[in-house]
Amino acid sequence: MAGRVLRALPRLKTVNRLQVILQHLKMSNQTDSTAEVLLEKRGGAGIITLNRPKALNALNLPMIQQIYPQLKTWEQDPETFLIIIKGTGGKAFCAGGDIRAITEAGKVGGKLVQEFFQGEYRLNNAIGTCKKPYVALIDGITMGGGVGLSIHGHFRVATEKTLFAMPETAIGLFPDVGGGYFLPRLSGRVGYYLGLTGYRLKGRDVLKAGIATHFVESEKLPALEKDLIALKSPSKENIADLLNSYHKKCTVDQEKKFVLDEHMEKINSLFSANSMEEIVKKLKQDGSPFAIKQLETINKMSPTSLKLTLRQLREGASMSLQEVLRMEYRLSQACMKGQDFYEGVRAVLIDKDQSPKWKPPALEDVSDEFVDNCFKPLGNDDLKL
């Protein structure tokens, strides 16, 4: 009898183990569909899916804390040949960082105001230095933090649904996530224009501005992803070839001129001034409908943000990505201590009255000394990359 019971034990163990595994699979399926970010390996590809469709896939700290270590693991893994990042829901790739959470933490002096920016900028740097080809499918809204998740990688695939903007000056912030690195490197002064005014680029214009590397119809993305996953031990060149083949077949808006083409001469001259006051003066002197429109936009922005942004872009033009991110971390902490960020978020995102009361209210009231202080090193608290 004892022998029979003993002999049955291994079988029982197996059954129990099976039940545990099945239970675990059931759980992982349930949690997966509700998880804010999905991380999976398919073929030779590591796939990051931003999964907060109701929040337009806005990036929060828990998402950052999951993506970063996985990215580092895939980078070291000899069986992972490329990394793909995309968003769910059909409306947005990623509409930005979770500004509300940061605002609430900032008001009560919470640690999130350090941890979020540290985590986000480290992730931006990890993408910018990633040794594996990194493909961002920027379908839909791609703003702020979403730009940081895509722009520093090797390939950015835009579609007719892509909407790009760095709208931070409207909420008392500045175009961060490495904006000081990539914006001044766009052709002419277009990056300065985008960073200061928050101008929105759509569809093929995102490619023409030099932000996307490829342009593909939105409905072709699942096929493209499938083909990327099916590549056997691909090199960066193989991936580029596949993306190029899809890009060449896409005829959507092919004939359309770049939306800023007719204004490029003005953008290059008006936005090349050394100070915000000088840019405003040039716009007033120009007096064209285009210049007047830019004046109206700039007058709505936080004067402090405008001054910080112009200097950020001018200095970032000759810095490495790491130096830019360190500089931007200093600026982020200065903004968290100021008042314009909280007022901008209130006016634009919470009360939505669109009439922020900036302090100080005018460019000439933002002193050079104040701006200098925002750029000062933070000693032990500086960003470590």
Automatic annotation (TrEMBL):
Record field: catalytic activity? 3-hydroxy-2-methylpropanoyl-CoA + H2O = 3-hydroxy-2-methylpropanoate + CoA + H(+)
Q: Which family does it belong to?
A: Belongs to the enoyl-CoA hydratase/isomerase family.
- What pathway is this protein a component of? Amino-acid degradation; L-valine degradation
Q: Which organism is it from?
A: Pipra filicauda
Coiled coil where? none
Enzyme nomenclature, EC number: 3.1.2.4
Boundaries of every Enoyl-CoA hydratase/isomerase domain copy: 46-375
Q: What is its main location?
A: mitochondrion
Keywords from the named record = Branched-chain amino acid catabolism, Hydrolase, Mitochondrion
Compartmental location = Mitochondrion
Which branch of life, at top level? Eukaryota
Q: Which InterPro entries match?
A: ClpP/crotonase-like_dom_sf (IPR029045), ECH_dom (IPR045004), HIBYL-CoA-H (IPR032259)
* GO cellular component terms listed in the entry, alphabetical order: mitochondrion
Question: Per the UniProt entry, what are the Gene Ontology biological process annotations, in alphabetical order?
Answer: L-valine catabolic process
Keyword Cell cycle found: no
Name of the top EC class for this enzyme: hydrolase
- Identify the Pfam families for this entry: ECH_2
Q: Which GO terms describe its molecular function?
A: 3-hydroxyisobutyryl-CoA hydrolase activity
Q: Would you tell me the protein name for this molecule?
A: 3-hydroxyisobutyryl-CoA hydrolase
Q: Does the keyword Mitochondrion apply?
A: yes
Question: Per its database record, what is this protein's job?
Answer: Hydrolyzes 3-hydroxyisobutyryl-CoA (HIBYL-CoA), a saline catabolite. Has high activity toward isobutyryl-CoA. Could be an isobutyryl-CoA dehydrogenase that functions in valine catabolism. Also hydrolyzes 3-hydroxypropanoyl-CoA.
